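Thread amino acids onto this structure.
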């Protein structure tokens, strides 16, 4: 599939989301499996335009997490969605410090992922985050090296 095709699909998805929310604004507060919100679903899939739309309508969605404690930034970081990570950190740089139920930050998730740029964006948002351990004492460096990586791709 070409890049042009993906852009077209993302545009259509954003337009559909906008139409649904125009019809019923309450849909933004619904939950799916594992407590996923529309924002979390959009962030996980890299739909930056949808993330922007949802946050413009309800910025409090940034505070929502899945049942495992992961927020939209955790999931976008894991998937390497640079544009979504930029949006989320621009809206709230403190998201970088939020932890899931295992004590993992978005940086822990990013080093498991596929994007060195995402790792750099999170570090730029909060340089001290690099030292934060999860509940098992693992920093992001521990996670990265356990994945047999000396560098994040």
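Threaded sequence (153 positions):
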């Amino acid at each position: 599939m070409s890049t042009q095709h993906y852009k077209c699909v993302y545009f259509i998805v954003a337009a559909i989301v906008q139409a649904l929310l125009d019809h019923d604004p309450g849909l933004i507060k619904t939950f799916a499996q594992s407590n996923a919100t529309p924002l979390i679903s959009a962030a996980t899939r890299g739909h930056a335009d949808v993330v922007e739309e949802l946050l413009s309508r309800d910025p409090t969605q940034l505070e929502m997490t899945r049942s495992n404690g992961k927020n939209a930034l955790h999931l976008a970081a894991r998937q390497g969605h640079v544009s979504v990570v930029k949006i989320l950190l621009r809206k709230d740089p403190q998201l970088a410090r939020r932890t899931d139920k295992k004590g993992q930050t978005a940086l822990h998730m990013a080093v498991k992922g596929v994007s060195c740029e995402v790792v750099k964006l999170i570090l730029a948002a909060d340089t001290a985050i690099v030292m934060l351990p999860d509940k098992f004492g693992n920093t992001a460096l521990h996670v990265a090296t356990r994945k047999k990586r000396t560098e994040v791709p």
